[in-house]
Amino acid sequence: MSVGRVFVAVTMPDEARHAVAHHLSEVDSPVPGRPVPPENWHITLRFIGKTESVPYEKMLGLLDQADLGSPFRLRLGSLGAFPGPKRASVLWVGTETGSAELCDLAAFIEEIVDDAGFMPEERPFHPHLTLARIRPHLDVTAYVESVPPVPASWDVSDIVVYRSHWGRGPARYEELERFELT
Ligand code: ATP
Ligand code: MG
C-alpha cells in the first residue's frame, strides 16, 4: 500500500514565521519567483518521495527507537539560492546557528532511511528554508544582497514526518508523525 509522498523536516513556531515574513516585507523589492506561503516553511532533513507502507513503517519503528540527540537552538541567517544566485531556481534562507546539529540529524536520519530500505540520497545535505521557486531561472544576486540576515530563531525539539499533497496552488503538508529530541 502506498503512503504517498513523504519527507522528514524541522518545523518552526508561528512567531518565527511572522519574524521572517516581517523581515522580508521590510525589503524594498518583492520576493522573486513563486513564494512559498509562510505556513509551508520548513527545513527538509530528508526527502523520501513516494513510499510504500512496509519501508515506511520500518522507518517509523527505527525513528521511534532512535536517540535523535538533544534539542538545539536554530537561528536563520543570510539568503542564498540553488544552484547559485546568478541562475537561481530556489531562493532560500540559510542557518546561522544550528547548522552542524541539522547536518548531524540529517546524517542520522539518512542511516535510518537507508536501513528501512530506501535508496540512499546521493546529494549533499545543505540546510535551508525554501522561500521561493523560480521558473525560469533568474539572477537574484541583487535581491539576496539587499536582504540583511534574517533575525529569527527558535528551539528545535522535534522532527516531523510529513506527507505532501499536490493540487492546484501550493502543496499542502500533512503531519503524519512527530519524534522528540530529548
Ligand atoms: P511543489 O513540488 O508543489 O513545489 P514542495 O516542493 O513544497 O511543493 P514536495 O515536492 O513534496 O513539495 O517536497 C517536499 C520537501 O522536500 C520540500 O522541502 C522540497 O524542497 C523537498 N524536496 C522535494 N524533492 C526533493 C529532492 N528530490 N531532493 C531533496 N529534497 C527534495
Ligand atoms: Mg517539490
Structure description:
There is one protein chain. A five-stranded antiparallel β-sheet has the order 2-6-5-4-7, with helices on one face. The chain has four helices and nine strands; from the N terminus they run βαββαββαβαβββ. Strand 8 and strand 9 (172-180) form a beta hairpin. The chain is 26% helix and 40% strand. The protein has 182 residues and is of the alpha+beta class. The chain has one domain (2-180): Cyclic phosphodiesterase (Cyclic Phosphodiesterase, Chain: A, Alpha-Beta Complex). Adenosine-5'-triphosphate binds at residues 5, 7, 44, 47, 130, 133, 164, 166, 171.
SSE inventory with pairings:
Elements: E1 2-10, H1 14-25, E2 34-35, E3 43-52, H2 53-65, E4 72-82, E5 88-97, H3 99-115, E6 129-138, H4 141-146, E7 153-156, E8 158-165, E9 172-180
Antiparallel strand pairs: 1-3, 1-8, 2-6, 4-5, 4-7, 5-6, 8-9
Bound molecules: adenosine-5'-triphosphate and magnesium ion.
